[in-house]
Amino acid sequence: MEGSRIPRHVAVIMDGNGRWAKKRLLPRGAGHKAGMNRMIALSEHIFDRGVTFCTLYALSTENLSRPKEELDGLYALFREYFPRNTQTLKKKNITLKVIGDRALLPADVVRLICEGEALTAGGTRGTLLLAIGYGGRQDILSAVNAAVRQGREVGMEEFSAMLSTGDIPEPDLLIRTGGEVRLSNFLLWQSAYSELYFTDVLFPDFSDKELDRALEVYAGRERRFGKI
Ligand code: IPE
Ligand code: IPE
Ligand code: MG
Q1: Mean of the per-residue pLDDT values for the chain?
Q2: pLDDT of res. 2
Q3: DSSP class of residue 102?
Q4: What is the rounded average pLDDT of the residues 132-158?
Q5: pLDDT band at 4 (very low <50, low <70, confident <90, very high)
Q6: Any idea which ligand is nearest the CA of 75?
Q7: Strands in 22-154 per DSSP E
Q8: CATH class of 10-219
Q9: Percentage of the chain lying above the pLDDT 70 cut
Q10: Whose CA is nearest to atom 13 of ligand 1?
Q11: d(CA 200, CA 202)
């Protein structure tokens, strides 16, 4: 039945934390904290809906040029929430994988990432990919350079597997919250045939119900992949 189609892989550009805080006359960091709480709850709900892969865009390569104060606040939130949350993922049998350029992140944050990945490795219920310090162009470029180093041409599937998403299937549904209608350097190669869903809802307000609405819209879409 068309209406019961569940996407295998949902990717979310979690945008609008700053504006959420501004609306409430709060500092931007309060928006990031609210966004972090929402992200944790949403990442549980999404797997309960039968989705197997979920990629969350938390920090782009370009976001790393934001003021130091904002980045320090984001890293502090990460240090506070990440270890506890990886324990939860472990209990829920979900594998965590972090994509992005780790050389751009503080050393202790990278250490927490490695520990979280090691703790949750082998979880069979689903895979949560967290994109931190991630850029789609950078992802493609590093795969190109890896192929160049090997000194040979590569095929389409082989190239896909060389990206940071590896053998994870491409996103079926790509959601962006916060009202902007652009990809902002998210999974550029991988989203070639993703269904796009844009909503004005700011990320901290993107409730489980809002996710269900997106899933419903997805279920009603006809995917043609260029065919008739
Ligand atoms: C998205 O929210 C989260 C990050 C990029 C870290 P923003 O911080 O971009 O929020 P707005 O777009 O300014 O509202
Ligand atoms: C995209 O949001 C990146 C993340 C949500 C992680 P931005 O707020 O950085 O995007 P732009 O600058 O509006 O394109
Ligand atoms: Mg933004």
Answers
A1: 97
A2: 46
A3: G
A4: 97
A5: low
A6: 1
A7: 53-60, 94-99, 126-134
A8: alpha beta
A9: 98
A10: 18
A11: 6
Record the pTM.
0.97
- CB of residue 17 inside a 6 A radius of ligand 1: yes
> Which of 76, 77, 112, 74 lies closest to 96, judged by CA?
112
Cα three-residue angle 113-116-120, rounded to 5 degrees: 145
Q: How large is the angle between the packed helices 208-219 and 28-48, nearest 10 degrees?
A: 50
pLDDT at 3: 45
Nearest residue by C-alpha to atom 9 in ligand 2: 63
CA distance 174 to 193: 10
What is the four-CA torsion angle of 142, 67, 78, 111, rounded to 10 degrees? 50
Q: Is the CB of 59 under 6 A from ligand 1?
A: yes
Measured from the CB, is residue 17 less than 6 Å from ligand 2? no
Whether the CB-CB separation of 66 and 97 falls below 8 Å is answered with no
